[in-house]
Each structure stands twice: as C-alpha cells, then as structure tokens.
Design a protein that fits this description.
453 residues; alpha/beta
Length: 453
Amino acid sequence: MVVNSFKRGIHLPTRKRATEGKPIEQVPYPKQVVIPVNQHFGAPNRSLVSVGEKVVRGQKIAEGVTPGPMTVPVHASISGTVAKIEPRTQSNNTEGLCVVIEAEGPQDREEFFPPLDPFSCTTEDALTRIREAGIIGMGGAGFPAHVKLAPPPGKHIDLIIANGAECEPYLTIDEAAMTAKSQLLIQGLAIVMKITGVNRAVIGVEENKKSIVPLIERELRLEKFAGDISIGLCRTRYPQGGEKMLITALTGREVPSGGLPMDAGCIVQNVGTLIAIAEAFYRGKPLIDRDLTVSGGACTTPKNIRAPIGACIKDMPVEFMDIDHARLVKILFGGPMMGTAVASLETPIQKNTSGIILMTREETIAEEEGPCIRCGRCIRNCSCSLSPVIMNNSLEAGDLDYAVKAGLLDCIECGGCTYMCPARIKLVQRFRVGKQRLRLRQQQAAQTAAVKK
C-alpha cells in the first residue's frame, strides 16, 4: 500500500509497547460514578434528576438548558441512586456540575432506545438518534457528532474519513477498538455515509498499525453496506491524527486558514465515534461507556479498558488496576502531547477521555524556561506551517492582533513546538492563554456593543 503523509511534524518515541496488541478489558462496575453534566463543546446542560432519585443505566439524566443543536444529553452509566448533585473538578481542571450516582442492585438493568434501521429511517430521525444517544467526537474535542454530520447548505462533502491514526504516544485504544470492533466500525461508517449522502470513505491508519489492515479488509468484504470504503495508510508522524494533517495526507487537500474540514470537502470522525454511532442504532445504546488506555511508568498493570462514564481510577480494584503511588508524579488525561495534567485520581472519566497516563519523574520534563535563541526549530517543525516564535513574541508584547495575524487561531495546540524548543519555552500554554484572552476581549466588545444599543 502507498504510505501517505503531510509536510513537517515530528517523530516521537511512541511508547505504545506496554498496551500494544492488548484486548479491551471491562472495568468492574464501581460503587460510585461522578458524571459531569456538560461533556461537550456547545451550550450548557441542566440536570434532569434530583438527589435520592433512582436511575437506571442508560437513563437520560441531563439535557440542554434551552433547545438547540449545540447540545447533547448525558445518561446514567450505572444503575443506582443519585447521592449528590454538586460541582466537582473535571478533567479540564475547572469545576462543573456533576451527578454522583451510587451503585445499587444488579447492573444488567438498562434503559436503552429501541433499535433503529439507519438505512430505512429518514435523515432527520437518524441525526436525532445520534443526538439523543449523547454522541460527541471521542477524539478529544467533544464536538456534537450530529452537528458535524449536518453541514450547512453550500458545503459540498465528497469524502468521509475515519480517523484511526492515533498518533499520541502511549495511547493504543483506537487500535484495540478497530481490532475488537471492526464490524461496528464499518457499520458506523456506512451509517454516516448514508446520513450525509457521501459514497466514498477512507479509514486513515498510521503505518505502525498496519497489522490490523487485513482484519478491516476482511470486514469490508463481509459488510453488505460497505460501499466505497478503502484504507489509507499514513506514515507514523506526529500529529498525523490531527484532522487537517490527516486530510492533507489522504487527499492532498489543504483546509484553508480559519476553515474547517468541510471547507476541504471532508468530514472526519474518530473511529470510537463511529463505533458508538453503530451501537446507538443497532443496540439502542447511548454513550455511557468509554474505551481508553491506562498506561505510564507508574501503572504496573497498563491495559486498554472499557469503563462507565464517570468512573474514577481510584475506585478500580487493585487487582485490576495497580498503581505505584511512590513513583507517580503526574497524571495526564489524554496523551502526553495534547492531554491535560490533573491533580487527583478522583478525576472522573468523560466521553472524550482517550487515555490516562500515570507518569514517573523519568517520563516528565520539569526544566526551567530559558531565553529564545531564535533557532527556528518551532517554525521548521510546525505541522500547520505557522511561526510559533512570532506568535509568542506578539503575545508577550500584548499585541493580540499581530498574534492572530501570525496564525494564533490556526494553531491546533499539538505541542510539537514546545517539544522541539531547546529553551523549553511553554509555547502551547502561551497560545492557549492567548486564545482565552482573545475570547474574553471579544465577549467584552460584544457586551459593550449591546449596552450602547
């Protein structure tokens, strides 16, 4: 097969060996889950349950405060009693309202939707099922899946891309899911093709996972709704799993500055999202479980797991998940490049949690920043062809407008520039703060305009 790629990017030690090829193991149901009411990019949700109420696994427990497309509901991941509804620290290190459910009774009680044939129902009914199942992008961003599958008029989509690149070090859950659930992956991809009216799709896989290609090819031959689905092999290079990079590698197209994948005629969905879509139609199952990788030097039992949404690592039995607390110095939700460091093992697993990395001192870098030496490594290796040094200088000078002109809003925050910087300047963190300052300025401008009116 031809191996595709994009320009620039970096080669990282993959550190996947600890969980590579391992099956997905079901976590024993915890005694308690902490389910954030808001787990998606969009308008806020409100709780539908009250303290003391009995809930069943799969029951809707939160939905949008006001009706609108940018909301997805949240469902109970275990059966039990609502013990608390209170703010808790989430994986983004902010406090958000959470529903705390204490397990009670047999966990085989479920409140799922009736199965729905995606090839005979209307497009509206299909999008409603995806929304009501609470499905969001499971690659990390948490964008509502039903919104991505309904591009606005005038946007011509001719290709669906299943993102199985999984370029972050340590993480192997997408590979494990494609291995164990290849049929569901193909079914989910076929459903998305039916909804969007697109007759061509590509499954993007990095070269270090080419061993699963024959398995997917076999399912493609067996699946009667497969259509024109092929596999695109990509070079193992970070951040190959970024939407823009994957589109360029597989099609040669470039997403324009400030644009989205649909501006290049593509819709990109993570393989986990596609599997969840298939389960929502054929099993009626809402998104209440999350497959993820738990690894790192401080994890003595690294593995790929399936856990109820809201479960915490601290509540998992030692015989299932053993942690060397004496060596644990950093907890990451997500991969080491784009993930978020959290303060506690009590942080709940969310819909977009692709992995939890338990790192030792030897695996982390805690060096002080030095002065920029103008070496240009950040520019040469930027996957988006930006100038991180100019963006950083502009932000330090307080010139937000010039930082935007230099490409601040096109930065995907992959962390490649920070990784390559010999001065150990925390560039990505600066860019994240810069974007926050820009959003705050825009909000203040909007409020001022509203007052003048």
